[in-house]
Amino acid sequence: MSDKSNKYGYVGVDIPAQSFGANKGVFNPAEINELIADNKWTQYGQLELIETQTVSSSTATVDFTSLGNYNVHFLTVTDLQATGDARVLYLRFSNDGGSSFISSNYHYANQEGDSSGTFTEDRSISSVAQIRIQSGNGGSASNEVANSYVYLYNLLDSSKYSFTTQHLTQLDRDVNYSFNFGSGVLASADTHNAFRLFFNADNISKAKFSLYGIKEYS
Fold it and tell me: Domain 47-214, CATH 2.60.120 — does that match?
């Protein structure tokens, strides 16, 4: 018998190679951690961080131009605030890596509500210039921040439309707790390999944006 140590439950020289989608053996925790670090452990659905961008001073736009190779992306938005009141966070896609951003053929539908008992529906009934992520009552005082997550689907698939779904919660400019959730689509089948976040008629004062890819079999 070889004096080679156990690996994946095997002893000897015939220890199988490991790769994502093709793990063989009995694994101890240390081996699993090692394979995860080498991107060789088969685990679908986990979030893989692509990029985090932090805004700490007035910025007009935040662009994500490196999207990896994922069918589904997940974006988190933490402590978002505009430099003024009553602003809306929008999203636009690009099909040229971020050199330009598409400003037509979007549709969206959102449901909004707040702690004062006001509930509204905001939706596009025809093609518009962007997808609406945030309700329009955001504030600019120190605690009037918004937090959100957004799923983005099919961005890199040239045969499909690009879709979004989102949930957002905030303390608004009227010091009410408010929320909105909804979906959007760019109704054009193309490869959308970048996207932009921006406020209407104002700058982003502060925020932290983290973009993840969701691991799947390929």
Answer: yes
Query: What's the pLDDT score for residue 181?
Result: 95
**Inter-residue contact 31 to 20 (CB < 8 Å):** no
List pLDDT tens digits, range 93-106.
999 999 999 999 99
Domain residue spans of the chain: 1-43, 47-214
The confidence score (pLDDT) of residue 5 equals: 64
Q: Which amino acid is at 66?
A: S
pTM: 0.84
Indicate whether 4 pLDDT > 60.
no
User: 158-162, long-range: CB within 8 Å, 24+ apart, which pairs?
Assistant: 158/189, 158/190, 158/191, 159/189, 160/189, 161/185, 161/186, 161/187, 161/188, 161/189, 162/93, 162/186, 162/190, 162/192
